Give the backbone structure.
Amino acid sequence: MVKSSPPVNATATNRRLAMFILIGLGLAALVAAYVLLFNPSPKPPQLPIYPGAQVSQSVDNGSGSELHLQTQGATLKQISAFYQKTFTSTGWIVLSDKVASTPDHRTIVYQSQDGQWGVTLDIDYQADRGVTFIDMYEQKL
């Protein structure tokens, strides 16, 4: 004798399925809200390296980083223009742009569009050596 299974109640099955879907969507919404409200601002992309520059030191301390470069054959104006274009084209804002008492040194401070990150850029041209030093300091604000 073959036993038959009890008849399937399609309405009850559909209700259970709908309930699981709603619970899943609710959990997904809670996770998304948590990430948006409590997740720290993501770290910005790596600091840009001036074309042809050599990295002399790179330090990442978790809440920021330092990048020290040197290059030859580039003027202070060319390097400043490169970083100005690179940062502002990705939404960064110039907070300060100062040429020191000597025309061979410039400091530019940028802030990310969301206000979470800052980058200080120091450019120092040493004419007697024909070398330009580029120092960038990134930090979470």
